[in-house]
Amino acid sequence: MPKSLLSAAICAVLLAGCESLPGGSGSPPVDDPLATAPPVSSGFDAEGLSQVLLSEMAGQRGDFHRAAVGYLAAAERYRSAPLAERATLAARYTDDTALLNATAERWQQLAPEDTAPEKLLSGIAIDRGNWPAALQHRLELARAGEDAQLLDLADLMVESQAELPPLIAQLRDFTATFPDNADAQMATARLEAADGRVDEAQQRLKRLTRQHAELPELWLARSQIALEAGDYAQAAATARRGQELSPDDDRFLLALAQAQIANGDIAAAEGQIDQLLARHNATPSLRIGLAQLYLDAGAIEPARRLLLPLLDRDDTPPATYLVLGSIAETQGEIENALLYYRQVPVGPGFLDSRALATRMLTAKGRADEAQQFLRIEILRHPGQRVALTQIGLQALDNVDRTAAADALLASSLEQAPDDADLLYTRAMREFERGNVETMMSQMRQLIARYPDNAAALNALGYTLATTTENYDEAQELIERAHALEPQSPAILDSLGWVYFKRGETRKALGYLRRAYAGQPDQEVAAHLAEVLVVLDHQQEARALVKSALADSEVHPDIDDLLTRYPQLAPQP
């Protein structure tokens, strides 16, 4: 984890009371979500009034999807911002992010002076990983004089490994018009530094310092960028300057400790860390975060000393065992590492701990012990049987112990012969080995036993659509899956693909666009790109292929697509 991002994680502990960014997935109010919406009571004809009343009743019954659709239609009819707002409030209670985005966009169009839709649209874009859109909405807030939290957004972008050059261009365009917006200047420098343009970032912040030397956030940003650039003396100096301006801001203690640890001055860093622990009553999550700082610098013993007191608590955080197990593993203390990993109870970190233990054993050439370890864990925690079995299959397959993996799966099926997930896993392993007929036979048996298993219906339907010309049965199976899980990107992809195979290319396009919006992986990208090129949308198809190649190091479906449509290959 990059040092500045780890710093951000620890700052979240130090500043836990701060308000979070507005987002599309925020928790809605417990009561009627429309209770606080603006009233709309005049200007309707009979049909319009009926539509609004039906939407209101749908909302009262909890059918928020129908309410949102109805209000949105009424908003379109009457060009009413209050109706669009009601549509958006209802849509927030649904799982349909496309509907939420549509209602919020219409609200924003009908009430361009209202900043609430921009905040919501930014949150939706963040949830989707659409960073250019998220930034554009934040910049609109900044233009309206709102606190756009651009630097915070820049940290999220870096953490999410967003494509930075176009985002930097957006920010530079904004700062050219609004050079005095310190938040935008710092966000630009943050992205420039993360993109390797450290000199540009530092020069930008130095210029900003001449105007806003009293701004603590500026000195924090300078410290973080200097730290990432390896200039530990500068990182420490700027952290101290920020601390002088804001002595109660714990982030400067943290920044100074980071610089000292990175510079190998562990003794000096311990002074800052002791102050942080004293201020926050040795909060467990803070101890764990600070221990990770030490580990990043290879200071194992100070990290261990920070964590060991947490073992005496009745509520030892699971992360304590995970980090101590990792420390023991790096020191070659395999048995101690297993002891720590095994102590993580069911809940957060449980599966991570068992996966770490299994990978550790297989990496050390102890695959038989790994298999036995998982069998014992499955007996101890039968409710985790499927997940533990999956962990074992992946780890054992990765070290070419396929027979051991098969034995583990067979053992789990002996204990739970009717488990749908295990039966599905067995069938998919046959498919991966090229035994397509066996896979389809086992999927048919699974569907006969569990006719509403959407995953099995989709897997069998997609396999029929891609390996046979039995498109009628394939479509019937996939449509059954779609009726059960209408928002599933995997099922939308299958449905679009079977329509494409049947020659219904335009119908396929809508499903594949929705699938890619929800699951932008290389397989869905290949399907969508092929449909686009057949419909003569060459430019969009080429852009999609370029993006898919950049997002994934392994892209067999895109490679196969390019053998058939070489004109889609990115130009050198």
Automatic annotation (TrEMBL):
Residues 184-218 form a coiled coil. Transmembrane segments: none annotated. TPR repeats lie at residues 489-522. Gene3D superfamilies: Tetratricopeptide repeat domain. The keyword Cell inner membrane does not apply. Keywords: Coiled coil, Repeat, TPR repeat. Signal peptide: none annotated. Pfam families: ANAPC3, TPR_16, TPR_19. The keyword Transmembrane helix does not apply. This is Tetratricopeptide repeat protein. It comes from Salinicola lusitanus.
